[in-house]
Specification:
This protein has about 290 residues and is α/β, with parallel strands linked by helices. The protein has 10 helices and 5 strands. The chain is about 40% helix and about 10% strand.
Length: about 290
């Protein structure tokens, strides 16, 4: 007795060919690249974002104050032809650095040029070290560009331990390599249209000065020395050892950085731009239409 043969769709057909058959193996579950993106998100610091719910009462500049310095900061950020792609703003505690960073972040966001922000805080364990900084920057850039996001996801899938490696390795694998791959797939005008302003506030609030220095050297080697990248980086900090030594006359960032010193160039509490009946102190404005 012969076993029953299973039914077929074409019982009388012979020598037939199927063209254009496609099988989607991922339709019933997430891809490994999606898992890579999820792993990246697990290593970010949401509290460090300029619009984080944990920074709901963040300082920012009052209207019509600090206009001169904000104009200078925004002018530098939007000058894509300037050879200096790093801006360092230093000042003592209470000089308004974080307020200025917040205001500039909101202005850049409104103009569609904000790539990422990271606000360090010595009192928040999720953002008082450099550990989450590069994943957080990569997350924000990837959220605005699907191709970049896919490249980051692939990188994490290939190396799940990437977050335990040096800042230089993380910067290259999670930001530089994906952007370089993207530049090969799009035109120069499309590349220039990508949000490009990277803002980092409170470097001095990072717990380890050696790690502060490592971050600065990583930015120099990976971002500043690569002219193919579109990014312009704005860092605010108290003038402590890591950034001070890098910016001094013999420092490796002296020629590469545009340096704004709040204590010398701008007085937070006594500016000609401050209305006579208002003192800005350590706070400053959300200036519109700069």
């Amino acid at each position: 007795m012969q076993a029953d043969t299973p039914p077929t769709f074409f019982p009388n057909a012979s020598h037939w060919v199927v063209n254009g058959l496609q099988i989607n193996a991922n339709q019933h579950g997430p891809s490994s690249n999606d898992n890579g993106w999820e792993r990246l998100m697990e290593n970010t610091a949401p509290n460090a974002l300029h619009d984080s719910e944990h920074r709901f009462d963040q300082p920012k500049c009052d209207e019509d104050t600090r206009v001169e310095v904000i104009q200078e900061l925004m002018g530098w950020i939007q000058d894509r032809e300037s050879p200096q792609r790093l801006l360092c703003m230093t000042g003592a505690a209470g000089s308004g650095k974080s307020a200025l960073q917040q205001t500039v972040a909101e202005l850049c966001s409104g103009k569609g040029i904000l790539a990422s922000t990271f606000f360090f805080s010595s009192t928040d364990s999720t953002r008082n070290t450099v550990s989450a900084l590069i994943p957080t920057i990569a997350y924000q850039i990837g959220s605005n560009n699907f191709t970049f996001r896919e490249a980051i996801s692939v990188a994490v899938t290939k190396d799940p331990l990437i977050f335990k490696k040096s800042l230089r390795t993380q910067m290259n694998k999670l930001i530089v390599d994906p952007i370089e791959n993207l530049t090969q797939a799009i035109s120069k005008p499309e590349l220039l249209a990508i949000p490009y302003a990277i803002l980092i506030d409170g470097l001095d609030e990072c717990a380890d000065e050696e790690r502060q220095a490592e971050l600065l050297s990583t930015i120099d080697e990976c971002l500043l020395q690569n002219e193919a990248l579109p990014f312009r980086v704005f860092i605010a900090s108290r003038p402590e050892w890591a950034i001070r030594s890098a910016l001094e006359d013999t420092g490796y960032l002296h020629q590469k950085a545009y340096h704004v010193q709040l204590s010398d160039q701008y007085d937070a509490s006594n500016q000609t731009n401050v209305p006579a009946n208002r003192q800005s102190g350590g706070r400053c404005p959300s200036v519109v239409d700069i």
